Amino acid sequence: MAKDYYAVLGLDKNASEDDIKKAFRKLALQYHPDKNPGDKAAEEKFKEINEAYQVLSDADRKAQYDQFGTTDFNGQGGFGGFDFGGGGFGGFEDIFETFFGGGFSNGRPNGPQRGADLQYTLNLTFEEAAFGVTKDIEIVRNEECKKCSGSGAKPGTNPQKCDKCNGTGQVKVQKRTAFGSFVTVSTCDKCGGKGTIIKEACPDCHGSGKVRRNRKITIKVPAGVDTGNTMPLRGEGEPGSKGGGNGDLYVNINILPHKIFRRDGYDVICEIPISFPQATLGAEIDVPTIDGLIKYTIPEGTQSGTIFRIKSKGIPKIRGYGRGDEIIKVIVEVPKKLNEKQKELLRQFAESCGEDVNEQRKSFFDKVKDAFGM
């Protein structure tokens, strides 16, 4: 059964020449093998799309197809003589090079190229991140060779104009394809697209025009940064080429662990141990904050695990006003080594409360009975 080439391109039979061309461009880009590596279905679809376009873009073949539903009268249907990968058509990359002006994989721009971006991980202490800090960091990057001023040529000599591309960095080749005759423009393989050839290379940069150097950069880290934040430093990346601008340096923030503080957003969390008498009777205790020690009153009867919030003792808010809070969680420490006198005093205390230290609290025992059906 003959293929419906209009359906392959998503068109109806009234489609104009411009409609056919637009549909082909869109579908060919979508299913091109370079965009779908290893996908056999996409490769077959790409072949089918090109087959349809070969017929519908040719006035004589299209007229024959519209009248008879095929261009092959050998009984096979479809476009029997189509050789996609062989000589005369040029394969996947040639079709895109001729039709769209360059391949997907191998094309290299000949104009100005922006330099590559760089990454740097900056470790900060808890306090440095909280209050901000000025840091000197050292990176390694390519920079213009001072000996040859970036030309790549040995001092006293100059790069010579490429005789193959006449200094343009590009070569033009006329090709005959199934689409017709096309002129393709590609990067000059002799000069690599530079337009010049270096006869004698600079001894410092070996003809590249760039050398690797350590560079110290001073950065100001704002207060309130956190792990995962990134500071972009514009123009501090690799240098561009052919007049292109420098890349950027991205400083990734990492906060080192603190001995007693944890962070939750802009809040600071701290666990503080207190004694049994302090929890029972209440007490004024020293509480560490990122600003230093402060006094805080624990009410009597405080239970282990109780949380208190101290306003505005947390992390300053980046790009904003105010600060988070400090959240303290008190942990009541039970004494482990008591002498006989201390134990006797606790027994007397328990008896005065009507408790027998050898029995569990009735309320808890009742919960156990309910849970286990006792």
TrEMBL record:
Gene3D superfamilies: DnaJ domain (1.10.287.110), Heat shock protein DnaJ, cysteine-rich domain (2.10.230.10), Urease metallochaperone UreE, N-terminal domain (2.60.260.20). A zinc finger (CR-type) spans 132-214. GO terms for biological process: DNA replication; protein refolding; response to heat. InterPro entries: DnaJ, DnaJ_C, DnaJ_domain, DnaJ_domain_CS, HSP40/DnaJ_pept-bd, HSP_DnaJ_Cys-rich_dom, HSP_DnaJ_Cys-rich_dom_sf, J_dom_sf. SUPFAM superfamilies: Chaperone J-domain, DnaJ/Hsp40 cysteine-rich domain, HSP40/DnaJ peptide-binding domain. Residues 4-69 form the J domain. Binds 2 Zn(2+) ions per monomer. Zn(2+) 1 binds at residues 145, 148, 202, 205. GO terms for cellular component: cytoplasm. The keyword Zinc applies. Residues 132-214 form the CR-type domain. Zn(2+) 2 binds at residues 162, 165, 188, 191. The keyword Repeat applies. GO terms for molecular function: ATP binding; heat shock protein binding; unfolded protein binding; zinc ion binding. It is found in: Cytoplasm. Keywords: Chaperone, Cytoplasm, DNA replication, Metal-binding, Repeat, Stress response, Zinc, Zinc-finger. The J domain is necessary and sufficient to stimulate DnaK ATPase activity. Zinc center 1 plays an important role in the autonomous, DnaK-independent chaperone activity of DnaJ. Zinc center 2 is essential for interaction with DnaK and for DnaJ activity. HAMAP family: DnaJ. Homodimer. Participates actively in the response to hyperosmotic and heat shock by preventing the aggregation of stress-denatured proteins and by disaggregating proteins, also in an autonomous, DnaK-independent fashion. Unfolded proteins bind initially to DnaJ; upon interaction with the DnaJ-bound protein, DnaK hydrolyzes its bound ATP, resulting in the formation of a stable complex. GrpE releases ADP from DnaK; ATP binding to DnaK triggers the release of the substrate protein, thus completing the reaction cycle. This is Chaperone protein DnaJ. The lineage of its organism: Bacteria, Bacillati, Bacillota, Clostridia, Eubacteriales.
